[in-house]
Amino acid sequence: MFNKAKNAPPENKAATPIAPDTRSSAMPSTATSSARPSLSVIGGHTQVEGDINSDEDLTVEGRVSGVITCKQHTVTLGANGYINGDVFAHTLHVSGEVIGNLVVLHRATIHKGAQVSGTIVAPCLVLEDGSVFHGSIDMDPDNEMLKRAFNDATESTTKTAALNSASGANAPKTTVDKRATLSADPAEQETTEAKAND
Question: Where is the secretion signal located (predicted)?
């Protein structure tokens, strides 16, 4: 009897944790699949003529003639891929052939077997042994081409920081009010400017 009683509770205890574990393991897999970044692929037998704008990671296995803009994601050029045009990306991996400028916000990697002709502008660059590169490299993070290409991201960050640090007296609202009075009647303009200065 004593042995039977001992065996019964462990069976119940073992059965109880299994059900919650099964449920909890199902939930993270659902969350993981929904959190996965999406990916666009241009297949090896596909040729694209024209510009590509992508808000997700992009893999090019085929041929592209045009500008590729993927400023917040990764562009990957496969070993048999070919790009004739400029590429603007957050991160770039090149294993195929590129003729054009590569402007990368974070890191560009030119893998073994890749052939690149053009200008590479990236603060971090890796040229692997066995890659072929003809052109110029600029790794200055303050490069004008890099700033112009990714101005939207840096400009919005700067504006947000400026608005958060502005005090009530120095807020841009006063400037906006003064600009608004320029189109008003001259008599009203003096009254409005006097109120804005108070």
Answer: none
